[in-house]
From TrEMBL:
It comes from Saccharothrix tamanrassetensis. This is Uncharacterized protein with NAD-binding domain and iron-sulfur cluster. Residues 1-495 form the Amine oxidase domain. It comes from the Bacteria. GO terms for molecular function: oxidoreductase activity. SUPFAM superfamilies: FAD/NAD(P)-binding domain.
Amino acid sequence: MTAAHELAERGFSVTLYERRALGGKSRSVPVPGTGRGGRRDLPGEHGFRIFFGFYQDLPDTLRRIPFPGNRNGVHDNLVPGTELLTSLSGGREDLRIPLTLPDGLLAQLTPADLLRQVRALVETAFRLPPHEAAVFAQRMLVYLTSCEERRLGQWEHTTWPDFLQAQGKSEDYRRILVHGLTRVLSSTKTDTASAHTAGLVAERVLFNLLGRGAEGPLDRVLNLPTNEAWIDPWERHLRDLGVEFRLGWEVRDLVVDRGRISAVRTRDPQGREAAVSADFYVCALPVDHARHVWNADLLAADPRLREAATLDTEWMTGLMLYFDRPTPLVHGHAYYVHAPWALTSISQAAFWPGRDFRDDYGDGTVADCVSVIISDWDEPGVLFGRPAKELTGEQVVQEVLAQLKQHLDDSGRTVLDESSLVTWFLDPGVSGIGGPNPVNADELVVHPVGSWHRRPTARTAVPNLFLAGDYVQAPINGASMEAANSAARTAVNALLDEAGSSAPRAVVHKLYRAPEFELIKTEDSLQYRLGLPNAFDLVPLPVR
């Protein structure tokens, strides 16, 4: 949809083919048949989504989608989450961490000041032992002062646990700082997660908290279900721009002729197959689906796609829990530190002031939805002792409730009242769980060490084929809405170049760079080329 938007604004005739529903992993998924008495169906989704304040390209798109009553279009539907709940099990009090820092906390980012402030932030927020907070602060300083060559040449091939020197550290250090950024934010298996990707996300979060390079508050969500707040208005706007939609159409194959795409083989909703021809093609399928249409002819025309086809994907999927009373666990997201399934959640009603669950959704009995993300489907749970993939849907719900209650209700009071649960809804992309062949139609690309070099660019070796998706190389090296948006803009610019168009290019925002560190990064570039460690790397890891 981003590519269609950018191209339509530049006068191109665009037809968009979509097999299931618009919006991909970002869409809402109404729970079929749950609406009564003129109410809408209960709002479900693939999983809650965060519009991080360090995003730049996606917010620009949101501003350009009209929304009634909003001066800045859909962008005005973003509202901040003000807290992060770090929930611990075992009778320990949970930590509510404010997501804003005092103004002027760091006017200058000198290495010494940054080291002190990051150490203080981590030590205070997560109650880590002082020496471990110091290690984390020192490792972040190493990453922040590393040149791009070192990030791609050394840290891309170093695991996040090794980079953070996790061996021998406390369980809280490993679960909060090591596992949190990998399992929760990107569903990447921590043991193999690239320090380049995890470090980049940590760097962006830190700069965002410090008010550097931020488009808005760190944690933002929509003030309505995603389709109402964003996807439906976007579809209407694209139709107004002349975009044609072929919903329910499946792309089956790409036809390569003399080094170019000559047609796309499609199947319509009635099962009829047809070849569709165009001047240019943007493949915006997720990589787990795109690799099925990258046939032998295409791989011969662009051998780089062979490596892209091997990119790793994992399950990261949403479970909606609907309660008959408001369930405001925290005004923001919650991370359940000791949950074996790497759970996170958000209570949605507090962020939807324009909607009342009882009046607007379902049968009038639901007052809130706790949207839970299951980021690890392969780890045994606490109730049945088996991974989520091996359980039925009902068992998954029971297991998730058990893990949530181990965290929320372990300090002598009931926070999550299981008796108020009305119903639940699991992402419909998941099927066959509890059986021999579980399937997830919406897997998430992940980032083990070395994977950056397997990720393709938006421009392929086939002159009229371009790639868009969160697996394509983009400024944010992580599976996210921002990465997908940036990749689509890059694909459009490559298409404009190929077409010889004089239209203005889509803006692809560069990541913020702290000017105070530029000289240090220049020196680090020389150090790296000489095979020497970063100047702040007190216990250096091998340089590759």
